[in-house]
Amino acid sequence: xxxxxxxxxxxxxxxISAPLSEQINLLGAMLGHVIRTHAGQGVFDLVEDLRGLCKxxxxxxxxxxxxxxxxxxxxxxxxxxxxxxxxxxxFFHLVNKAEQLEIIRINRERAQAADxxxxxxxxxxxxxxxxxxxxFTLDQVMATLNRLDIQPTLTAHPTEARRQTILLKQQQIAxxxxxxxxxxxxxxxxxxxxxxxxxxxxxxxxxxxxxxARPSVEDEVINSFYFLNHSIWExxxxxxxxxxxxxxxxxxxxxxxxxxxxxxxxxxxxRDGNPxxxxxxxxWTLTQNRQTALASYIEELKKLRNDLSLSDxxxxxxxxxxxxxxxxxxxxxxxxxxKRRYQHEPYRLKISAMIARIEALNxxxxxxxxxxxxxxxxx
Length: 379
Known about the structure:
This protein has helices at about 20-40, 40-60, 65-75, 80-115, 125-135, 140-145, 165-180, 185-205, 215-250, 280-305, 320-330, 335-340, 345-360, 370-379, and strands spanning about 155, 265. By secondary structure, the protein is mainly alpha-helical. Among the domains are: about 115-160 and about 215-270, no CATH class; about 280-379, no CATH class. The radius of gyration is 27 Å and the shape is globular.
């Protein structure tokens, strides 16, 4: 791992930015090192030879070079073929992550340069600013939002066969790469991140990218929770926040934003040609989706409880909160330990009762009817 200390990366390539080129070169170098270490110098040379040959064939549009590459591939044994496929598959997935980070970097730069007169290009703020420029009133904009109906739909597409384990490792690599780009890192921090990156790339290369058996409907449903717990759960609130901020910036106020974004899923419910999707499977799918969503709400409430440490010995408690706490006390929702721990922290006590109500929803014997309306009221 010491070879990555003071790693110097040369920017190369045409049509891509220097930061993106730097990341691709670094990830490619690490991937090559892992292949050489785990598969041997011969396999590494094979991958490099074919990579260079295919690249030159594409640049020169040379059919003879393409034919030469095809002949070399046809002579590979099974082990060489497996490593070749693994190397290029992992490389392209790593490049995709680097490109996603580059999009984030570009958007950050645009956001830093933006102001009310020049909102970030391709942003929600730019769209709202354009409506304002064209003379749309706030009522007209809200009417448009009320008609808006966006329904992204999750599906178990046959071309997306990556396991959740692989997705998580790729996300960990992306997180480390994002940290590595920070300009304020000390040499020790930079070296530590490089070593962590090398470990994650090695783990990625040596992890089965697809299951040995065809995934069941239940497997597909569970795999979809990766996107629910990460991309959807983290991104959807930001979209609504961006709309609210833009309305306030260009119209002076932001009414309640209608729920124009509704996520759907085919998994566990699509019966078109799949005999394994039975009524029992659909019922199980609905239960799993519900429990996953409830668990996410509980985690968010726990974060909020950590933040709201206000003490009634330092500030007065609003009467409405005192009334709500009295109702919670009569319902006997939380343990004596929780009551003792938060006896002077009314907000934490209230949130604990909210968590208890949501947890009770997962119990089949519970009579709890804590709806989204109740949750919003408590918040």
